[in-house]
Amino acid sequence: MLLVSKKWTKLYISLFFSLLSAPYLNVFQCQYHFINENKTWTEAQRYCRENYTDLATVDNMNDMNELNKSVNDRSVKFVWIGLQKTGRDKWQWSSGEPALYLNWGDKQPEGRDYCGMMTNGQWHDLSCSVTCHFICNNTNTGLVFVNQMMNWRDAQSYCRQNHSDLVSVRNQDESQQVQQIISDRHLSESRIWIGLFRVRDSWQWSDQSDSSFRYWKSGEPNNAGDGENCTNVEPNAQGQWYDNSCNNQCPFVCHEGE
Hints:
By secondary structure, the protein is an alpha+beta fold. Helix content is about 25%, strand content about 30%. The strands form 3 sheets. Strands 6, 7, 8, 9, 10, 11 and 12 form a 7-stranded mixed beta sheet that branches. A 5-stranded antiparallel beta sheet has the order 5-4-3-13-14, with helices on one face. InterPro entries: C-type_lectin-like, C-type_lectin-like/link_sf, C-type_lectin_CS, CTDL_fold. It comes from Cirrhinus molitorella (mud carp).
């Protein structure tokens, strides 16, 4: 009986791991559907809601790659996704998922550098080797201004060793807290490191907090036209994002499922 028991145990384990990798278990993942019809952003949103779930939402780079693969007509230059501007530097998905908080200065990020700092209340990209003051977050005591000049990596190490991490600025309230600390020390025009850094074409927070995925092309969003409050992706540029007038007509991608 013991030998039989071991045999069946091995069989059950084998079946369990086979099921985990079975293709049909992916049916619950979000699926993208490319619609090669020219519509305004609002018309595309309506179409997706009537026929699928909503205009496409993108939560990470894997989603972005899957969405880009769904665009099977490579002659298409721009495609709508469900990201829309809802206020100054605030973007929100059509599905109502949390808004992206972006506080870049004019024509920032420039795309040349990999670390983020704050000056005059706005973000700028800067060479990580430059030395600046910085602000740490301490989960017990709150924000801590460090009156030492360090490069970004050394500042990150200092915060992690002595507090929690470099400060994240994920919404307007957190931005105001950081600006208040800077103002109290009369450093408003100084460059202060925050926990923002670039990995490939995506900006992330040092503490890995939920800052919402963003994949803007360098220099975007730039609001170059009149009311560029909606978002296109460019399939032939790995799906990077551009702000665009919602009244322009483009093909679009819907998503289905969660």
